[in-house]
């Protein structure tokens, strides 16, 4: 050991400091244990919580199945179930009209449905998605932008049909604002 690192009058093993430190470390580590595993019911409740109403990037659940489970409240649905087919069809159709992935369309649709339900103006999500996709024509648009403007129009007090009718104007005004220097 270098003489510059020595502490005068202290020897490494004095008073058993090193031994006491090793003992404290061993006792501390022995007290550690793996976190308890949550019972299956708790794990399922966590998946069904409001936070689970978003299809995560790493979620292996097929997106139509995820959306069907959220919209119908039937968490017993499985891939290939006939009740999932309308959700798969609607997402496939919407993906031809929007630039977002099916996952993002599903997530935004769930958010919009929740927001409308909170305001007491709920609409069936597949109907909303179908109505929005039908009016988009051959152009590919941003579903996020479109649903944002639709929700703003609904907040202003417009009904579903009136909001759809005014949606192009809201989108055009937004595009004009973005083009201004």
Written account of the structure:
By secondary structure, the chain is mainly alpha-helical. The chain has a domain at 59-179. It has eight helices and no strands. It has helices spanning 17-30, 40-47, 63-72, 85-95, 102-118, 125-135, 143-155, 160-179. Helix 3 runs parallel beside helix 5 (102-118) and helix 7 (143-155) crosses helix 8 (160-179). Residues 30-39 and 42-48 have low confidence and may be disordered.
Could you provide a short overview of the structure?
The protein has helices spanning 17-30, 40-47, 63-72, 85-95, 102-118, 125-135, 143-155, 160-179.
Features:
0% strand, globular, 181 residues, mainly alpha, 57% helix, 8 helices
**What is the averaged pLDDT score?**
80
The unreliable regions are 30-39, 42-48
User: Could you give a short account of the major beta sheet?
Assistant: none
> What fraction strand?
under 5%
N-to-C series of helices and strands: HHHHHHHH
Discrete helix count: 8
How many whole angstroms does the radius of gyration measure? 28 Å
Helical proportion? Answer: 55-70%
